[in-house]
Structure formats: C-alpha cells, structure tokens
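sorry for the late reply, my laptop died twice this morning and i had to redo everyting from scratch. anyway the thing you sent over, i finally got around to it. pasting the sequence first so we're on the same page, its 176 residues, then the predicted structure underneath. double check i copied it right bc i was rushing
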Amino acid sequence: MDKLILLRPSEKYAEQIMEYKREMQENGDSFDGCAGLEEVGSFSEWADFENRLKRKYGDGYVPSEVFLAVREDDDKLVGMIDYRHPLSDFLLKYGGNIGYSVLPSERRKGYAKEMLKLLLPICREFGDSKVLLACDKENLASKRTIEANGGILENEVPDDVNLTKSGIILRYWINC
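ok and here's the structure:
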C-alpha cells in the first residue's frame, strides 16, 4: 500500500478538496469525516470549520480536528478524517469521536485502515485513552477498518436519527 500522511487542510489542497466533494456527490456517498464539505460552495467557506459548525449546531457543537489523508508519493488527497472531542450526548449515542471517508476511486486499497491508525496517536496527544467509533451495521468496510485497529464492539443501537441505511448503529471503542 502507498504511504499516507495526515495533514491539516490548507489552500494547497483547495482544488483537490472541491474535487473530493464532486466525486463523493456523484457517487451518492455520505461525507463522513468531512466537516460539512457537502454544504459549502468553496474551499474558503469550508475551511472556516469552527465558525460555520458552531452556527449550525449551536449548543451541540463539538470542536474537531480535521485532517486530509494524502498519498505521499504523488501528493493526492485520498481521504478525510476528523476527530471530535469531547463527545456530546448525540455523538456518544450515534456518531463517536471519529468520522472518515475515502474517495470512491481510491477505495479497497487499505486507506481507511491506515488513516485511522495514523489518527489514534493524535487522539492520545489530546488526552484521550480511548475513542468511540460508530458505523452502519451494513457498512462492512467500516466495520473491518475499526476492528483492524483494535475496535471492540460495545453494542448495537437503533438509529433513531436516520444516519444509516440499516437502521442499526454499531458502537466500538478503541484504545489509543
């Protein structure tokens, strides 16, 4: 597998980020870990995460660390991952600390597994000893990614907020 690095979003990747949005939309994908990329029209609008997301979520807002997963050999954006901390009641039940996505054209290459592996030490640096991840029961790729990084299934919960296709959310804990 090609080596990935996690980078903070920057203007250098503005065009690739907007192309990421286009490809995800064309594929009808969920923008997990993308800090609301689907809701904006430009990189500069997207990059103002804190202000934009505070307005959207109000008291339910949780700060997050957003990273681009970039393939080192050709500097290509292949995925996005975010780390939300601390957990709100909503995230504790339905969403978890971490969300991620991989471009449709870059899937099945082990990138999600590597992205999560690279993020766990960062979570530890922020003081977390364990993190919660959640996925749709039918999302076998995400389930495998989480389990490959040490995820221990705590439980399944009904998706009362329509985040999943199956109606069931799997909740996993991973030690950082």
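The helical segments are 14-27, 43-47, 49-57, 89-95, 111-125, 140-148.
thats about all i looked at so far, will dig more tmrw
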